[in-house]
Amino acid sequence: MTLTLPSPASPLKIGTRGSPLALAQAYETRDRLARAFELEPTAFDIVVIKTTGDNRAMIDADRPLKEIGNKGLFTKEIEDALLSGGIDIAVHSMKDMPTLQPEGLTLDCYLPREDVRDAFVSPGIHSIADLPEGAVVGTSSLRRRAQLLHRRPDLQVVEFRGNVQTRLQKLENGVASATFLAMAGLRRLDMAEAVPATPISVDDMLPAVAQGAIGIERRSSDITTAAMLEAIHHAETSLRLAAERAFLAALDGSCETPIAALADLSGGTIQLRGQILRPDGSEALSDEQDGAIEDGAELGRQMGETLRARAGAGFFAH
Ligand SMILES: NCc1[nH]cc(CCC(=O)O)c1CC(=O)O
User: Fold this and answer.
1) Closest CA to ligand 1's atom 8
2) In this structure, which of 61, 240, 257, 284 has its CB flanked by the most CB atoms within 10 Å?
3) Which helix (H) or strand (E) holds 121?
4) What is the arithmetic mean of pLDDT over 75-94?
5) How far, in Å, is the centroid of ligand 1 from the Cα of 182?
6) What CA–CA distances, in Å, run from 220 to 48, 89, 102?
């Protein structure tokens, strides 16, 4: 098939949220496409879309996100723009994406995954173990909160949101002694050196499903764009996410449940680690399995069902 490539007269419209991280991810996508097809940046338009989530999160800056709305809060307007033709592709942090896409949209192109680890961020302290008894830690992530309290029930967790600068300012102001950020976000913003961040081993804090991965969504019917995206698709990332996202789907996970998973490929097999926790951190259930690379999704689904059965009803209630 010969591709009709975008041009300044007929650019490929790339939809994204307006946060610094979202923009960095959109530029990375544009640059990879431009390199793959030897196009100028002017063959692409970056279209910033404000989502309900961005608006509400701004107005209710101190309310937990989980009270403001469900998953899809940050994606609905972007997906509407895809469906109506206002944009041609949408660039997403896969960590924030529901496991099912709306009718008519396809999400099957992934960029090479960044560092999957969480970072411990604090101006004076270097690890969870070094936090003094009863210290205050800021995070809005239910997973990080539950994992932290599981290890250190003595700590106090406060709601922490906003961009990286806002969070660092809160640490400077003494609102909390430490917080967590994804290494991937820090690296993509070129801030990993500028911020007092120490990467946490995945053995100590298993990351969120799809952490560090960028996915590109398109109209299912748009085969020209599909063919273009094939050139920048990263198969290994896709295989890892297939296992992790099947695990999430089997647990019926939303952003309101503390769930972690990480798949790795080595020696021709896929290894999957999964964890679910009670929101208060009082109990954590983990599993680890490996299998054939092409069976990752089945491995994830089975692990999700096994852990759900072990947890029983009401596990996620407190
Ligand atoms: N939920 C917000 C979010 N979505 C993706 C990232 C970071 C980048 C990534 O994990 O791909 C972040 C911020 C964070 O967790 O620090």
Assistant:
1) 185
2) 240
3) strand 118-121
4) 96
5) 6
6) 22, 11, 10
CATH architecture of 118-199: 3-Layer(aba) Sandwich (3.40)
* DSSP of 24-46: HHHHHHHHHHHHHHT--GGGEEE
The total number of residues shown for the chain amounts to: 318
Ligand 1 atom closest to 180 (CA)? 16
- For residue 123, the model assigns a pLDDT of 93
CB of 93 closer than 6 angstroms to any ligand 1 atom: yes
Which protein residue's CA is at the shortest distance from atom 15 of ligand 1? 182
Ligand 1 atom nearest 255 alpha carbon: 1
Q: What is the pLDDT of residues 209-219, one digit of tens each?
A: 999 999 999 99
Fold of 12-111+213-233: D-Maltodextrin-Binding Protein; domain 2 (3.40.190)
pLDDT (tens digit, 9 = 90+) per residue, 101-130? 999 999 999 999 999 999 999 999 999 999
CATH number assigned to the domain covering 244-309: 3.30.160.40
Q: Tell me the ipTM for this assembly.
A: 0.95
Answer whether 186 contacts ligand 1 (Cβ < 6 A): no
Q: Find, among 221, 222, 291, the residue nearest to 263 by Cα.
A: 291
Of 110, 195, 205, 211, which is best to mutate to test ligand 1, by the most ligand atoms within 8 angstroms of its C-beta?
A: 211
Q: Would 118-199 and 244-309 be classified into the same CATH topology?
A: no
Which residues have a Cβ under 8 Å from the Cβ of 304 and sit 6 or more positions away?
A: 246, 247, 248, 249, 250, 251, 274
Active site residues: 96
| Cβ of 211 below 6 Å from ligand 1 | yes
Ligand 1 binding pocket includes 212 (Cβ within 6 Å): yes
Tokens 């801030």 locate to 191
- Put simply, whether the predicted model's pTM sits higher than 0.90 gets the answer yes
Confidence band for 73, pLDDT divided at 50, 70 and 90: confident
Q: Spell out the domain ranges in the chain.
A: 12-111+213-233, 118-199, 244-309
What number of other Cβ atoms are within 10 A of residue 143's Cβ?
26
Residue 241: pLDDT above 60? yes
